[in-house]
Amino acid sequence: MEGGIAVGICLDASGEVTVDGPAARALFDLAIALEDATPHPVDVQHVLAAIVLAHGDSLIDEQTQVTGDDPSLQRIICKYLPLVFQQYDDQLET
C-alpha cells in the first residue's frame, strides 16, 4: 500500500508515513477532539494509525481532507481507535 493515504498523508515504499504541515495540524486537532471518545489517551500517532487502517479498508482515500472538525472522519477514526490501542499502542513511535 504505497502512495497517498489522504490529502497531506503519504506512505512510501519502506512503510514510512509522511505528513505535511496542514495535515499534521489536523491530526493534532483530531486527537484533542477525540480524547473524550475513548478511555485511552489519544495522541497524533493513534489518530494517524487509525487513518492508515481506515485507508486499508477503503473508508479513507487520497482525496480525503483531514480536518479536526469533520464528524464523519471522527466517526471513522473512532471505529479504529480500539484496534490501534489493542494491537499497536506499544509499537507507535512518539
Q: Are there runs of 5+ residues with pLDDT below 50, and where?
A: none
Strand tally, please? 3
Distance between the termini: 23 Å
The number of helical segments is: 3
Explain what the structure shows.
The protein has helices at residues 21-34, 44-56, 71-88; strands spanning 3-6, 9-11, 17-19. The longest helix is centred in the C-terminal third of the chain and has 18 residues, at 71-88. It contains 3 helices and 3 strands; from the N terminus they run βββααα. The mean pLDDT is 90. Strands 1-2-3 form a 3-stranded antiparallel β-sheet. A hairpin with a 2-residue loop joins β1 and β2 (9-11). 48% of the residues lie in helices and 11% in strands. With 94 residues, it is mainly α.
Please render the helix and strand layout as text:
Layout: E1 3-6, E2 9-11, E3 17-19, H1 21-34, H2 44-56, H3 71-88
Antiparallel strand pairs: 1-2, 2-3
Helix pairs in contact: 1-2, 2-3
Short description:
With 94 residues, the protein is mainly alpha-helical. Helices cover 48% and strands 11% of the residues.
Keywords:
mainly alpha, 3-stranded antiparallel beta sheet, 48% helix, 11% strand
